[in-house]
Design brief:
This protein has about 375 residues and is of the alpha/beta class. It has 13 helices and 13 strands. The protein has 2 domains: about 190 residues, CDP-glycerol glycerophosphotransferase, N-terminal domain (Rossmann fold, 3-Layer(aba) Sandwich), CATH 3.40.50.11820; about 170 residues, Rossmann fold (3-Layer(aba) Sandwich), CATH 3.40.50. The strands form 3 sheets. Strands 2-1-3-4-5-6 form a 6-stranded parallel beta sheet, with helices on both faces. The chain has a 5-stranded parallel beta sheet with strand order 10-7-11-12-13. Strands 8-9 form a two-stranded antiparallel ribbon. The longest helix has 24 residues. The protein is globular, with a radius of gyration of 21 Å. The chain starts with a helix and ends with a helix.
Length: about 375
């Protein structure tokens, strides 16, 4: 593992376990401000998409003072991370509510006072592969004695089937996990937003006109320090499918530097940097593996192919909350069979797709009204 990554992890742990709790306790002399809502994230330098709709709703209500606190810790230096974390703790000590959407260690670094509510807008839908404390390689070992998810009062999930897996993965009581729906999926029910995605895509890819768009979006493998680049010959897939198709790849941001270092990779010419959610209205077929984006994509009632050549090894190493056979899509384990599977999927009529029961089970709360339900919970809690 990269030595700089290891050093950063050690410094981060020391700050979290010693400095931040002291900072929080020293700031507790102030009264909790029930009108103060803090949006915080350690994976972006600006407001994450997962927070956008809830931010707008709370801002529009005029009931709250909103503070935003973002920094991509992976790209920031140790001093910047420490400064950002300490500033957050001072806000945390007097905030009525804190909204996060991913692992955010400062929020779990202390035993918070009960009057402050922490809302976790977890960025993923459904409950596919195991994560958190249910997975062997998701949480660094030095955090296994604590709980990086503690202090969450509300974890929002996409459907009832996700409640128990999330509670288990996050070591939280089930009553903290609620099927409110995932806020950002409300956009998917907007015809205006869908049309805008199509228009913007065609402006970027005019060559897609009259073609079937095939999107490959593999799950992130490895960890932030040592990411693993998945293997698929997209150039061969494009050639086999023919001119009637356009093959694109949407990779996790941590994988892009790896790709640029691999000269001549067939992936490089196919890389699309448009956010995955903005590609759902455009894609005709999605090729996925173990990524939770399959749930969101299926809300658009489009065909899916699961390319999982390492299924046995992944099941053994990571594990699943559900049987892969439940997912309404053809499972392919050999690259030589992938093109034919894509063609079959592209010919499927969405009315013939047996996905209603699947969507109700895993995405039943994602109905276009999730943000309103979450905002109502916050109003009641404060």
């Amino acid at each position: 593992m990269d030595i700089r990554f290891q050093v950063k992890q050690v410094i981060k742990q020391a700050v979290q376990s010693i400095v931040l709790p002291v900072c929080y306790r020293m700031s507790l002399s102030r009264e909790v401000d029930r009108k103060l809502v803090v949006f915080a994230d350690a994976h972006h330098n600006s407001r994450p998409a997962a927070m956008e709709l809830l931010y707008r709703q709370l801002k529009k209500s005029g009931k709250y003072r909103i503070a935003e606190h973002y920094l991509d810790y992976a790209d920031a230096g140790a001093a910047a991370v420490a400064k950002h974390s300490i500033r957050f703790m001072k806000l945390y000590a007097r905030a009525g509510a804190v909204v996060i959407c991913d692992n955010f260690l400062p929020a779990a670094s202390c035993r918070k006072q009960g009057k402050t509510k922490v809302v976790q807008l977890w960025h993923a839908c459904g409950c596919y592969k195991k994560f958190g404390y249910d997975a062997t390689d998701d949480i660094p070992e030095h955090y296994h004695g604590a709980n990086v998810y503690r202090n969450a009062d509300l974890v929002t999930v996409s459907g009832n089937a996700a409640v128990r897996p999330f509670a288990s993965a996050m070591r939280l009581p089930e009553h903290c996990v609620r099927a409110t729906g995932v806020s950002r999926t409300d956009l998917y029910f907007s015809k205006t937003w869908r049309q805008r995605c199509v228009t913007q895509f065609m402006d970027r890819y005019p060559q897609a006109k009259g073609k079937k768009v095939v999107l490959w979006a593999p799950t992130f493998r490895g960890n932030a320090g040592v990411p693993e680049l998945p293997s698929l010959d997209l150039e061969r897939l494009q050639k086999t499918l023919g001119d009637g198709y356009l093959v694109l790849a949407r990779l996790h941001p941590h994988l892009i530097p790896l790709l640029k270092n691999r000269r001549g990779s067939s992936l490089e010419a196919c890389i699309c940097d448009i956010p995955a959610e903005e590609l759902y209205p455009v894609a005709d077929v999605l090729i996925a593996d173990y990524s939770s984006l399959i749930y969101e994509y299926l809300l658009f009632r489009k065909p899916l192919v699961l390319y999982v050549p390492d299924l046995a090894a992944y099941r053994r190493k990571r594990g699943f909350y559900m049987q892969i056979e439940e997912i309404p899509g053809e499972v392919v384990m050999e690259e030589s069979l992938l093109a034919d599977a894509v063609k079959r999927a592209a010919s499927v009529n969405d009315r013939d797709m047996p996905i209603d029961a699947f969507l109700e089970k895993y995405m039943g709360a994602c109905d276009g009204n999730a943000t309103a339900r979450i905002a109502a919970w916050i109003a009641d809690a404060l």
